[in-house]
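Lab channel / #folding
Pinned by the channel admin:
"Please post every new chain as: sequence first, then the structure tokens as a reply. Keep commentary short and put observations after the output so the thread stays searchable."

First post following the new format, from NK:
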Amino acid sequence: MRTGVALICFCVLAILAASAAADTLALKNGDRITGTITGGDNKTVTVKTDFAGEIKVNWSAIQEITGDTTLFVLTPQKTTVSGSITIANAGKDLVVHTKSSGDVDVPLASLTVVRSPDAQAAYEKSLHPSLVENWSGAANAGFALARGNADTTNLNLGFNAGRKTLNDQITMSSSVVYAQNDLAGGGVTANEVLGDARYDRNAYDDALFWFVDGNFTHNALQGLNLQSIYTGGLGWHAVHTPKTTFDVLSGINYTRQSYGMVEGSTTPTAGVDRNLVGATFGEDFKHQFGALTTVTQDFTFYPDLSDAGQYNFAFDGAATTKISKWLGWQVSFSDRYVSNPPIAGTKSNDVVFSTGVTASFGK
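Reply from TO:
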């Protein structure tokens, strides 16, 4: 008998403990939702329930909140307070019952985010990630080979990677295009390598940023052994949404160009080295169409500050469509222009179009 009474008492205490640990939302229409508050923003609060999973409830629909779950709330002053929460002032204010500062009122109209302890821990970790974390990117390749009446080889390779945190961003990209025609009068018809690496750091209110950039080009058919452009400057996040970003930037650059003999040419050519100080003006655009296709485009203009007639520009555009979680198809277009190439007989403009499969990694 005593064992049965003890068991009943234990069950009752367990039920009471579970109820005490839960949060209850009393709605203005008379309904009640019981569960655990896991987060929220300025429009809704998210409650994890046993019967329906996660439910988002509009703050305006809530009459009262009771519970002991510790939550982390970002105030309009950009400080974070923690404690259990309730609703006050006819549903206009969120009250955070902190242990150290007492009750803190946060107007719902100014509320930005509510986090659970796990979400807060993940957020704090994201503020200072290690250099090997948060990387994502893709590698793509295309290859064509013809033998018989034709004797051609075509290869294009590409790679891009990025690491973005709350305060900075690293982007890197490279591409290789090679084509050869071994029939009479043929030879190498394309041999170009492009590369770029950039670091951005937010400077003010997440809208302005400073950046450093290195841009590299090798074009054997133009006689360009290597062009290196090193830039430092300021940028502006003109558009910054989950699906669309558009940045504009400007700065000062140092350009070094080294020219030699054109590949396949039998005419002796004296090497030419040029060192230029110029300006940099550019823009970057990215947009996601639906869940499958992403379009990127960037254009950078490099005028020489000592000679108004000397300049070059770089344009890159690409569209990538997912086939599976990690596999996709990419189409890319690149244009490199030099106003006055120093090697006689070479053209100012080089356009590259490529397509092939792409394999992605990271998030």
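NK: The chain has two domains: 20-127, 135-361.
TO: also worth noting, The radius of gyration is 30 Å.
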